[in-house]
């Protein structure tokens, strides 16, 4: 995919919040650009799109963020995610963990789109999430995109969760998305809708991850005043986290 | 969380539990001992692949990390 970015330069702004919660998510300032996707599909469509970029600091150690990443569904903010499956997993000889997950999500459209695309209502959106965990450089890179409804709108999202040695209690999340639509005459409103939905999903995704992280924290906490019996299944002052299992 | 194959959810759960434990206790600590979950994964995987075929979900031939290299239409 060849991309030509807009002629104007953009600056990144980052904000960080600190507080008492297990995971404080910094505020996100996203930079938007229009881009032209110089790619022709077999039907000769030229895709136009929007580019989204953000950086966020998560106030949790990288290990915890990763453990929570695999367990973030279901959560109170993910009612639009219907199913989650691991299709593939492999540890490579150089100790990278590769995974592929398939998600199905509801296809919530604004009313005007429901009128224009009546057929789309019946099918959920199928989303693939490919990921690489690199323990050596403490990074998780994910690429997520929809494999159906793509002609109407394609959203490709790339996330990097990076732990830094000098900031062990923080994890930096860098998120990029490319939102494009090939529908003649409607690409702009579709992109706008796509971007609005993406942002709303991004907020839910962060809340969902926070939720999973705080569950992990609770699972590993030793409650003062409880009997020793209750502590049997919890970690005693050890450094390991037992992942919370969702029912 | 449900699997896309209605009958696979229990197998998924068992596999997920195994993976989450292995991930936190072994992989993240640099322990390279063998993955204890491969049998569970195999059972689960067989079930899911069947559901994917039945539902005609277009996952075949999709290159790993390949979103940027895919054709525009589907």
Automatic annotation (TrEMBL), chain A:
Per its UniProt record, what PROSITE patterns does this chain match? PRELI_MSF1
In this chain the PRELI/MSF1 domain maps to 49-221
Q: Which InterPro entries match?
A: PRELI/MSF1_dom, Slowmo/Ups
Question: What do the Gene Ontology cellular component annotations say?
Answer: mitochondrial intermembrane space
A Pfam family (short name) is PRELI
User: Transmembrane segments in this chain: where?
Assistant: none
Region: Disordered, residue numbers: 225-247
Q: Which residues form a coiled coil?
A: none
Q: Where is the composition biased (Polar residues)?
A: 234-247
**What name does the UniProt record give this protein?**
PRELI/MSF1 domain-containing protein
Q: Which organism is it from?
A: Onychostoma macrolepis
TrEMBL record, chain B:
Q: Which GO terms describe its molecular function?
A: phosphatidic acid transfer activity
One biological process GO term for this chain?
phospholipid translocation
Q: Which reaction does it catalyse?
A: a 1,2-diacyl-sn-glycero-3-phosphate(in) = a 1,2-diacyl-sn-glycero-3-phosphate(out)
One GO CC term on file: nucleus
Q: Which UniProt keywords apply?
A: Disulfide bond
Domain of life, source organism = Eukaryota
The record's section on InterPro entries has: MDM35_apoptosis (IPR007918)
- Which PROSITE patterns does the annotation name? CHCH
| Keyword Disulfide bond applies | yes
Is Zinc-finger one of the keywords UniProt gives this record?
no
User: What's one Pfam family the UniProt record gives for this protein?
Assistant: UPF0203
Family named by the database record? Belongs to the TRIAP1/MDM35 family.
Name the record gives this protein: TP53-regulated inhibitor of apoptosis 1
Q: Report the source organism.
A: Onychostoma macrolepis
């Amino acid at each position: 995919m060849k991309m030509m970015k807009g002629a104007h330069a953009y600056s990144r702004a980052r904000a960080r919040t600190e507080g008492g919660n297990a995971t404080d998510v910094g505020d996100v300032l996203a930079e938007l650009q229009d881009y032209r996707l110089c790619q022709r599909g077999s039907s000769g469509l030229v895709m136009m799109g929007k580019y989204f970029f953000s950086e966020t600091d998560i106030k949790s150690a990288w290990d915890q963020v990763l453990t929570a990443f695999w367990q973030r569904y279901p959560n109170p903010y993910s009612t639009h995610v219907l199913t989650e499956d691991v299709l593939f997993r492999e540890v490579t000889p150089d100790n990278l963990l590769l995974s592929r997950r398939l998600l199905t999500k509801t296809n919530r459209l604004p009313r005007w789109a429901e009128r224009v695309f009546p057929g789309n209502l019946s099918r959920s959106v199928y989303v693939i999430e490919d990921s690489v965990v690199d323990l050596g450089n403490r990074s998780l890179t994910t690429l997520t995109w929809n494999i159906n409804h793509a002609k109407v709108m394609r959203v490709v999202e790339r996330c990097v969760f990076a732990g830094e040695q000098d900031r062990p209690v923080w994890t930096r999340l860098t998120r990029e998305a490319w939102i494009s639509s090939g529908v003649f005459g409607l690409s702009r409103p579709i992109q706008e809708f796509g971007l609005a939905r993406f942002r709303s999903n991004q907020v839910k995704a962060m809340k969902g991850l926070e939720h999973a992280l705080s569950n992990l924290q609770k699972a590993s906490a030793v409650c003062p005043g409880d009997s020793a019996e209750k502590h049997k299944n919890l970690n005693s002052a050890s450094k390991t986290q037992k992942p919370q299992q969702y029912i | 969380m449900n699997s896309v194959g209605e009958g696979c959810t229990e197998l998924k759960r068992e596999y997920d539990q195994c993976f989450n434990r292995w991930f936190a206790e072994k992989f993240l600590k640099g322990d390279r001992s063998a993955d204890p979950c491969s049998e569970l994964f195999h059972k689960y995987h067989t079930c899911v692949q069947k559901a994917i075929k039945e539902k005609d979900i277009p996952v075949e031939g999709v290159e790993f990390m390949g979103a940027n290299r895919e054709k525009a239409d589907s």
